[in-house]
Design a protein that fits this description.
The chain is mostly beta strands. It is 0% helix and 45% strand. Strands 2, 4, 5, 7, 8 and 10 form a 6-stranded mixed beta sheet that branches. Strand 7 and strand 8 form a beta hairpin. The radius of gyration is 27 Å and the shape is rod-shaped.
Amino acid sequence: ATGTILNDDGSPLYAIGAASVSEGNTGSVNLVFNVTRTGNAQANETIVVTTSDGSAANHASAGSDYSATNTTLTFTSADGASSTKSFTVPVLGDTIYEGDETLVATLSNVVDAVVGTLTSAIATASAIGTIVENDAAPSFSIAAASVTEGNTGSVNLVFNVTRTGNAQANE
C-alpha cells in the first residue's frame, strides 16, 4: 500500500513596502525598501528586486536622481514564518529644486531551492519609493523702480526681477 501526504501549507508570500528618504545636497543617501516573507519555506528561497523610474509626472530618473539597482535577496528556511530583508537604493544628492520624485521597486522571480520557481508567491509586486525634496523652491522678487519723465518722447521704466534658488526647468 502507498500512503500520500498532501501538503496543505500554502507557499510563502512576499511583499514589498513603500519607502521614502530626503535627497540630501551632495553624495548619496539610502532609500531602504523592506521585503517581507510571510510563511515558512522548506529550503532557501531567492527573490529578485529591481528599480525603475516612476510613472508619475514628477518621476525620478536613474543616473541623475538615483542609482538603478538590481539584486537578489535570499531568505533561508531558518528565517522563520515571518522575515524581512532590506533592499537599498542609493539616492543622489543635488541642490536643484525638483519637487518630490518617485521610483518603483519591483519583485520578481521567486525561486525555492527544492520546488523551483514559485509563480504565485508574490502578494505585493511593487512599491513606490519617494525622494523627498530638501531644496527650497526658487523665489522671485521685483525691485521698485523710478524714472524721471522727460518733456518729449518716451523714457523706459526698468524693473529688475531676481530669482533666488536653483530650478530643474526654465522659469
